[in-house]
Design goal:
It contains 9 helices and 5 strands; from the N terminus they run βαβαβαβαβααααα. With about 210 residues, it is an alpha/beta fold. Strand 1, helix 1 and strand 2 form a beta-alpha-beta unit.
């Protein structure tokens, strides 16, 4: 489910007042919610790690630069895509920013449509990441509802074991395995064996 634009914010971090205000105005003109911050420290002081959206930061800033900001965001579990704005002479630093976790970088001077296109892409990426996280949480909660024996059966199913092998491994009858297997499918809300295996593996629980 893609969230509405109003649920997402583009955070602009730039010590250049004119550049920051201009970019915030551009984003708002495209129907996006945007907020400007004069420094990385100002931004981090009020930032909610659960926020949805994207971050645009200038690479060169006093006190804390764009790369240091990216690293600080990583430490608080931030999954917002970060776009770095850089000058022509800073391409190598922009590469460093990408290695640190930046989603993209844009060189000055940039076309308005280019940055809007990159921002839209990053917002879609953030939506996908949030939705994937929510899906994983649902699967993990379902796993928690399994009894220890049901979890044993699930683990053996993930390993590719047949009902006969599961029965022998757990010293129970094949009929009992079928009952446990049906319980697992029901509690995990899996429509098929492949659905059960895929969701469990994707959640990192296998």
């Amino acid at each position: 489910m893609v969230s509405a634009a109003g649920d997402r914010t583009v955070f602009v971090v730039d010590d250049d007042d004119a550049a920051r205000d201009s970019l915030v105005m551009l984003l708002k003109s495209d129907g996006l919610t945007a907020r400007g911050y004069a420094s990385a420290h100002d931004f981090l002081a009020t930032f909610d790690p659960q926020a949805r959206g994207s971050i645009i930061t200038d690479l060169r800033m006093p006190s804390m630069d764009g790369i240091e900001l990216i690293r600080a965001l990583k430490t608080v579990g931030c999954i917002l895509p970060v776009i770095v704005i850089t000058g022509h002479a800073d391409v190598s630093r922009a590469v460093d920013a990408m290695k640190a976790g930046a989603a993209d970088f844009i060189e000055k001077p940039y076309e308005s449509e280019l940055i809007l296109r990159v921002v839209r892409h990053c917002l879609e990426e953030n939506d996908a990441a949030v939705d994937a996280g929510a899906s994983r949480t649902r699967v993990l909660r379902r796993l928690e509802s399994l009894t220890p024996r049901e979890r044993q059966v699930l683990d053996l199913i993930i390993d590719g074991a047949s009902n006969k092998v599961i029965a022998a491994s757990l010293a129970i009858s094949p009929r009992t395995v079928e009952i446990y297997r049906a319980n697992v499918m029901s509690k995990m809300r899996a429509d098929s064996l492949s659905d059960l295996i895929r969701s469990t593996i994707t959640a990192g629980a296998a």
